[in-house]
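User: New here, any thoughts?
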Amino acid sequence: MIHDAHTHTRYSDGLGEVFENIAEAEKKGLSLVAITDHSHYVLGNSFNAYLSEIRRWAEEGEITVLAGVEGDITPNGVDVPAWAAEKLDFVIASVHELVDRPEEYVGLVRAALIDENVDVIGHFGASFPYIGYPPWEDLVELIKLAEENGKAFEISSRYRVPDLEFVRECIRRGVKLTFASDAHRPENVGNVSWCVSIFRKAGGKLEDLLFEEFL
């Protein structure tokens, strides 16, 4: 069940190589690791090299290795086009915009949840301690939207989000979840103990995870 669906490498703002992230995941006994570098770094001249390197190491590795990207949710939508999403195993969409109010954040995530190129919402709620927390009703609306559109939310050990009640509501409604270290150094790959803890506290089981078939 233990996996890490959000890691970065030198292809964006990470410090390690693809093979180093995979090796660390194997060393820590993970079932699956994903390489998910930032879209604005890799969706250019380096995209084919990025994909090829992940696929090559995936063939040699002892665990499941997925190729993804972490896209930015902007006021104009998620910056991952369909042509790229089709070549990847999955797409994370995260809010990195500097927003002032929780309703702005909720609006950005709402748009991402109806984007057919998006699979997972990354580190949901990481900005709330700074901009304020939206009403529970707004959060439930997003979970319902994820349910309707087949989207997942990641549980992030780096930011310790979302909270227990949010995770519990996702499980109750059948919205899938992933574990994420958001590692930017190889040695941090697989550091998902907080994810596992809150997932279990919420009553999560294997069937509640997005990549169940690989775990």
Summary: The chain has a mean pLDDT of 97. The chain has nine helices and eight strands. The domain at 3-214 is CATH 3.20.20.140 (TIM Barrel). The two ends are 5 Å apart (CA to CA).
